[in-house]
Every structure is written in C-alpha cells, then in structure tokens.
Amino acid sequence: MRRQPVPLTPGDLVNRQFGTDDNLIGTPDAPTLFGDAGGSMFDFSKGGNDTFDEIGLSNYTFYGDVVGSIFDFAQGGDDTFNGLPTVGVTAYGDAGADMSDHSKGGNDTFLSGTGRQQINTFFGDAGGAMSGHAQGGDDTFITQTVQGGTHTFYGDAGGDMSGHSKGGNDSFQGSRQATNIFFGDTPGATCPTTPRAAMTHSQPERTQATHSTEMPAVT
Predict the structure, then answer these.
(1) What is the per-residue pLDDT for 191?
(2) Partner residues linked to 154 by β-bridges
(3) What is the mean pLDDT of the chain?
(4) Which residues have CB under 8 Å from 41's CB, separation 6+?
(5) Cα distances (Å, whole numbers) of residue 142 to 78, 109, 119, 127, 149
(6) DSSP per residue, 34-98
(7) Are 70 and 40 in contact (CB under 8 A)?
(8) CB burial readout 17-51, b (16+ within 10 A) else e
(9) Which residue, among 120, 46, 113, has the nearest Cα to 78 in the 3D structure?
(10) Under 8 Å between Cβ of 12 and 39
(11) Of 124, 122, 129, 128, nearest to 149 (Cα)?
C-alpha cells in the first residue's frame, strides 16, 4: 500500500498515511498548534517535518506531530520549534500523551528566544510515558535567553519509561544566565557544562542537570 499524504487533520493518522511538511505560526488568538493530527498515530503512519513559530506575546503549546499518542510502528517527524522573547512555550516533539509498541520519535530541535523572563517546557518525544519497544529520537535543545528565564527540558518522556523503551541521543545547551533543568534518560545524552553548573542524579537511568547562575495558521 502506497503512503498517502494527509494535510492537518483533527483526527488520526492510520495505515501508511503521512503528515505534510508545514510551517505553523501561532498567534495570541490561536496559541495551540499541532503539526499533523489532533488525535493519535497508528500502524505505519508518519508525521511530517514541521516548523513552529509565533507572532505576538502569549503562552503557546505546540505538538510536533499529534496531540494524543503514537502506537504500533508509527513515527514522528523531524520538527523545529522556535521561541520568541518574553513568551512561554510548552512543546512536545512528537506526542502530547504516550508512545508505545514499536513507535519512534523524530529528531526534533527546540530553540528558545533571546529575551528575558521566558518560561519554557520542552518534551523531546512524549509528554506522557514510553513503553513497549518505543524509541526516542535524537533531539537538540538550545537556550538563548539573556537573563531571568526558566527552561525545563525532558530528553524523551515526561512520565515513566518501561518495558524495552529507549531514549534517543539528546543534546542540551543551557543559557548561562537562566535556570536550566535537563532530564536525560540515557548515557548518550550530552549537556555542555557552564560555570558553577551542578550535576545531580534523580531516578535510575535518568539524569537531572541543573544550570543556574543568577485550527493553526499555515504558510
């Protein structure tokens, strides 16, 4: 069965459907965006490679591929999230909920803005749990906040990882004048150190690194 391209849909992606590559722009009137489906992904479906931007000050929520979960052999796309100064962003690289079975996350990139007082929370793959043989993508997190921001990064899952699930090889770069909290799940996660950075360990196979020195528009 040939893959079938599907534009943004409020439903699910199933069979071998795949999401299109979209440039999505959030506004204060439409602060919540999803890259491919408002539901979930099943079977051998795949998310598109989407880019998320914002215009105007607000608190934004972005879902790289689906608002729901990713099941079976479905795979998330390689998405890019761009932040603006003085706004808050919560972004999910692939799924707002869970990843299970043999699903796989995309290689996503999260960029904060360059302003102050930002509060960002980024999930590399799933906002919920990862189970079965789910595989996280190789995600990149880069902060650029000048001062006063707070950034919390989850390399793979916001919840538990169980079964044979595995995280990706993630890269974190924190701002030297912001509070940066990183949760990586595997030894492959890397985090450039900054002066006075403290490395602490939380639950098994999860490392917390804390650095502290002081429907959507498509184009």
Answers:
(1) 52
(2) 123, 183
(3) 84
(4) 12, 13, 14, 47, 65, 66, 68, 69, 70, 71, 74, 75, 76, 95, 103
(5) 16, 8, 14, 19, 13
(6) ESSBSS-B-TT-B----EEEE-SSSEEEEESSBSS-B-TT-B----EEE--TT-EEEEESSBSS-
(7) yes
(8) bbbbbbebbbeeeebbbbbbbbbbbbbbbbbbbbb
(9) 46
(10) yes
(11) 122
Structure tokens at 100: 């299970």
- Contact between 204 and 177 under an 8 Å Cβ cutoff? The reply is no
What's the token pair of residue 193?
């150190």
The two three-digit tokens of residue 7, written as one number: 């534009």
Whole-model pTM: value is 0.85
Instruction: Give residue 33's Cα distance to chain centre.
Output: 13
Residues 6+ apart with CB under 8 A from 92: 62, 63, 64, 123, 125, 126, 127
pLDDT score at 145: 72
Q: Encoding tokens for residue 210? A: 């804390």
Pairing mode of beta strands 23-26, 217-218? antiparallel
Both tokens of residue 41? 């992904």
